[in-house]
Design a protein that fits this description.
Pfam families: HTH_1, LysR_substrate. Helix content is 43%, strand content 22%. It is of the alpha/beta class. Helix 1 crosses helix 2 and helix 2 packs across helix 3. The longest helix has 21 residues.
């Protein structure tokens, strides 16, 4: 069997789909099927249970998947065996919080791609909980998250920077300060939340709970951009990273709700404790950290 066949198997296992793996790898579906069947013939047992249109790893398939993950680690070391940064090549898989792609990562991408055009960078945004699940599954080399700092027994978490949060309202809202809320702590404003698994949502809900602030009117969005534009349309109030609303505040499209408490989330670099940090990964992280210092 060949390394490309094992890479195909890995993608089918992670995507639970031959067709999705074919699309991701730019193969025909027949090629993906042949790659998996070649491995099955050599091993002598099926790697997937095929149940109609659904597939699932067999017990042997699950065991092989763990070995393939370990093999990919070694393969990555071989690809990046040279210590010369001039010869950097390969692929970096990064799971990242949505706001950081839009408002913090762009300068890094621009500079890094100019210097290392042979490095392929794959970015995937999701909420922090799902990103960690996918990191454990081997889908990413590392994560860049926006969330409270937290230690894990099997993950390395490096706190890079703090990002301030700000409460925002539309121009028609009369809620200029949270101190304006009366003793009953009930507000008529609609509160716009990110999705339920988002760390920003959890921080926001904890803040409201601790302040005993309640409302019967809430909306949930999956996108920070959708929230800030909805607030600017006077749909309600929200709590977002300041970096994501700075321009709209300066233009007068959004207004800040004054608050005595300073709320922040941390930018963290996260990877598995057993992960080998290749020279190209290390270089990208250094570019990102240096870029943050300039912003």
């Amino acid at each position: 069997m060949e390394i490309r066949q094992l890479i195909t198997f890995k993608n089918v296992a992670e995507l639970n789909s031959f067709s999705k793996a074919a699309k991701k790898l730019n193969y025909g579906q027949s090629t993906v099927t042949e790659h998996v069947q070649t491995i099955e013939r050599e091993i002598g047992v099926p790697l997937f249970d095929r149940m109609g249109k659904k597939i699932a790893l067999t017990s042997v398939g699950k065991e092989l998947y763990t070995h393939v993950i370990a093999l990919m680690e070694v393969y990555d070391k071989i690809v990046n065996v040279s210590n010369s940064t001039d010869s950097f090549k390969g692929e970096i898989g990064i799971g990242i919080s949505e706001s950081l792609i839009s408002y913090r990562l762009q300068p890094t991408l621009l500079e890094f791609r100019r210097k290392y055009p042979n490095v392929k960078i794959k970015l995937t945004s999701d909420n922090c909980s799902k990103l960690k699940e996918r990191l454990y599954n081997g889908e990413f080399d590392f994560l860049i998250t926006l969330e409270p700092y937290r230690e894990f027994t099997d993950l390395v978490v490096n706190k890079i920077n703090e990002e301030p949060l700000t409460f925002i309202r539309g121009n028609d809202s009369k809620l200029e300060k949270f101190t304006m809320i009366k003793d009953e702590r009930f507000i008529n404003e609609c509160i716009l939340f990110t999705d339920r698994d988002c760390q920003l949502r959890k921080l926001f809900e904890n803040y409201l709970y601790n302040k005993k602030i309640t409302t019967d009117n809430t909306l949930e969005f999956s996108s920070v951009d959708a929230i800030k534009h909805s607030v600017s349309s006077n749909l309600g109030i929200s709590l977002l990273p300041y970096m994501s609303v700075k321009d709209m505040i300066e233009k007068g499209v959004l207004k800040v709700i004054e608050n005595d408490d300073k709320l922040n989330l941390n930018i963290n670099i996260i990877y598995h404790k057993n992960k080998w940090i290749s020279p190209v990964m290390k270089e990208f992280i250094e570019y990102f950290v240096n870029s943050l210092e300039k912003q």
